[in-house]
Amino acid sequence: IPGAIMELLKPYKKSSFLKGTASVGKSSWQATIMAMGEGRYMLPLKSEIRSKESLKLDDKITIKFTLEIV
Question: Are the C-beta atoms of 6 and 41 separated by less than 8 Å?
Answer without folding.
Answer: yes
